[in-house]
C-alpha cells in the first residue's frame, strides 16, 4: 500500500488556500480579457446584463450566467470555440446519451501541455510512479477518458499499454504475463475481468501484480470498492477519480493515499479548473459537510473553455476540506459522486439515487456486485414504484427468493421506500465496459 506523499508540481499543489484563490483570481482576469474577443461569449454574458471582463471581479463572479447543456447544443456544432478551427488539433465529445454529442476542441497547448500536466497530478497524487506498468482500459474515439489517462501515464514516465475496453480473454493473461502494476479502467469492467480470470484458472490475488487502480467515468461506492480490493493482490487500492469532457478531461478529482480511507478526493487541478460546490436549488455555495452540485470554470483551456458549467453531479464537501496530511491544503477535499440531480428518482415522495441502491447491493453477500439495474416506467422519474434487478452468485448460500427479499428489506430500511427486487442467475444482466447504464425505462 502506498503511504508516502509525492507531488508532480509541488509549488502549486502545496499552496495555501489563500494563495490558491489569489492565483485563480489572476487567471480569471486573464480569461475574461480573452473571452471578450469572442462574439459568442459576449452574447452569452449579455443574457445576464454582464460582459466577459466581469469574470475578473470577485464580487461579480457569483452573478455570472451558468452554462447548461441546452446552451451548448444551441451552438452546434462547435459551441464556444474561442480559436480558429485550424488551430484545433483534436476534437473530443460528450457521450451524447440524451442527444447529439457536444464537441470540444483542443489546441496544441491543450493537448501537449495542459492536459498532460493535469493528468500527471492525477496519477502521482493517486500513488502511481515512474516505472509503473499501466493497463489503460478506458475507451477511445471521441471520448476523452482513454486519451487523458494515456497522456498522464506517459508524462510521469510509466509504461502505458493502451488496451481500451473489452478483450477480457486477453486482458486476464496480459495482467499476469506483462506484470501490470496500475490500471485505469471502469471498476465494473475490472470486476467482470476478475470473474473471467477465475473461470480460466487465473487467481488475481496470486497471479496479478496490480497494486493500484484508477476508477472514473462513474463513482463507485465504498462497499463496491472494498469488494474489488478484496479480489486483488494484497495492498491494492481502488482510487476514485473524477472529471468531465467539459472540464477538459478526467482531470478534476483524485483520492490521495491519506484521503482514500475517508472515501474523499482532492480537487487536484483547482489552479486550472476552478470548482464551485453549490446548492442545486439556491445556487449558493455549501459549507463544509454540505451536499451540492459541482460547477466548473476552466481557467487555462484555450480551444473550448467553459464558465460556470453545471455538471449536475452531486457531491459532499468534506467536513475538513483544507486539512489533509498530504499537504495539499489549497486543493479542497470532496466525497465521491453521490448521484446526479437529473438521475434522481422520486419514489412515493422519497428521493432515491442509484448510488444508494449500489451501496446496498455491494454490501449484501451473494450478489454479483457489477451486475444490477433499476427498471422504471416513466421518463419524468416521479414514480409510485420501481424494480431493482440483481444477480445471484452460484456459490451463495441464499436462494434467489431469499436474496431478493434480503436486498428489498435492506433497501426499505435504508431508503424508507419499498422497491420490488428481482433476482436472476449469473450472467443474465448486461455488463458494461465503460459507463454503466443503471436506470432503464421499460414498458409495463
What does this structure look like?
The protein is an alpha/beta fold. It folds into two domains: 10-14 and 106-340, Rossmann fold, CATH 3.40.50; 345-441, ANL, C-terminal domain (GMP Synthetase, Chain A, domain 3, 2-Layer Sandwich), CATH 3.30.300. Helix content is 30%, strand content 23%. The chain is built from 13 helices and 21 strands. It has helices spanning 10-13, 17-35, 39-46, 58-61, 69-73, 108-126, 145-156, 168-177, 187-199, 204-207, 222-231, 354-363, 400-415, and strands at residues 88-93, 103-107, 133-136, 159-162, 182-184, 212-215, 237-244, 249-254, 265-267, 273-278, 291-298, 309-316, 333-334, 339-340, 345-347, 350-352, 367-376, 382-383, 387-392, 420-425, 439-441. Strands 4-3-5-6-7-8-9-13 form an eight-stranded mixed beta sheet. It has a four-stranded antiparallel beta sheet with strand order 10-11-12-14, with no helix packed on it. A four-stranded mixed beta sheet has the order 20-19-17-21. Helix 12 (354-363) packs across helix 13 (400-415). The longest helix has 19 residues, at 17-35. The protein is globular.
CATH topology of the largest domain: Rossmann fold
User: Roughly how many Å is the radius of gyration?
Assistant: 22 Å
Residues in helix, %: 25-40%
Q: How many domains make up the coordinates?
A: 2
The helix count comes to 13
At the fourth CATH level, what is the homologous superfamily of the largest domain?
ANL, N-terminal domain
Shape: globular
Query: Pairing-aware structural class of the strands and helices?
Result: alpha/beta
